[in-house]
Design brief:
The protein has 140 residues and is mainly α. It is built from 8 helices and 2 strands; from the N terminus they run αααββααααα. This is Transposase.
Length: 140
Amino acid sequence: MSRVRVQIMNQFHRKSHEYKAIKHYWKLIQQDSRKLSDKRFYRPTFRMHLTNKEILNKLLSYSEDLKHHYQLYQLLLFHFQNKEPEKFFELIEDNLKQVHPIFQTVFKTFLKDKEKIINADNVPIRLGSPKHSDLDGFLP
């Protein structure tokens, strides 16, 4: 998402408000939309009090391409975090031809490694026993 954001950002003039806003608030674009803060703060870039959700809506209004890729990114993130590989890969396959070439490269890699991703998602994470670790002398 970061490289797509930079390419879209570079379509604007470097001194434009849109360019500066997207550059300054890049973390909001990469953050999970469900975790955005509702707290209002004064934002010098916009010269008003805004929440992170309001800032994100302003950023997405600058470019339909950015908005489309952001929404797709959020859907993929949601399905991945909820361990829904069928929906995750269906979304990738449905959007492979319509997305930015950078996304296409990532999507093709995901599809190539589909079985590995699904298997990794199904294997529970096991932490080793502390008594058999390198921290033997440090644990009580």
